[in-house]
Request: fold
Amino acid sequence: MLRERVVEACREGIVVPEGLIAHGRGECFDYLVGEETQFFAEEAERAAAAVLLLARRPVISVNGNTAALAAREVVELAMATNALIEVNLFYRTEERARKIAELLRRNGAREVLGVDDATAVIPGLEHARGRVSPRGIYVADVVLVALEDGDRTEALRRMGKTVIAIDLNPLSHTARAASITIVDNVVRALPRITKYVEEMRTWDEERLEKLLKEYDNEKVLAEALRFISKRLLELAEEGVTISLG
Ligand code: PTJ
Reply:
């Protein structure tokens, strides 16, 4: 179903052809994590909720794939956290930015940045890829990205921002450059972060900060890698051939 949604969104001009390749890579890694949210992702999702609750200017960055797969979930998280929503594209065209903003509005977004106002530039990134809203990502303290390119994640970190990344590949450049890496499918991760935001809403700052102090992204990525290798070793032990009777 998810694949069909991305293919359809590609036909509609919301997802780029490269997004189909990215989706296939995601399917492969999703299989390796058991197509379920694992404990290392839960840990990162809780930390993401804490960071978003503490943020002063949080922004959720939306690209073609994320809009196609989880427009409603993006809007729900934005509402729960008072985050701004910004369209931010790797392969930017104005027409696609507009289409993605429309899709987000149809799913309840009140305001979508990054379409007509992408006039600021992330230092170190060539023009179209680095263009962001001066009211959104440019001045954000926390940016949530999903299925993101590694160079941009690194450039946002270099600007001093906390970057929450949702990426099924624990070895991707983004996964390794982010402050908090959620190795989970974007369709599962976003509603879980929203759920944790609701659960932690009554926590005081000290308690949220304590959770973040104890969070270790290096450890979370190592847990993801260990989980995948253990799963593969177990499959090798059990045997994978299909009996034909
Ligand atoms: O819409 P645009 O122009 O911004 O382009 C979007 C894509 C996705 C094409 C662009 O950002 C890109 O090329 O990304 P990458 O470098 O292919 O990285 C995408 C990452 O997301 C890969 O590590 C995939 O494993 C991962 N991924 C794919 N599907 C999912 C996913 N992670 C979470 N949930 C998924 N459903």
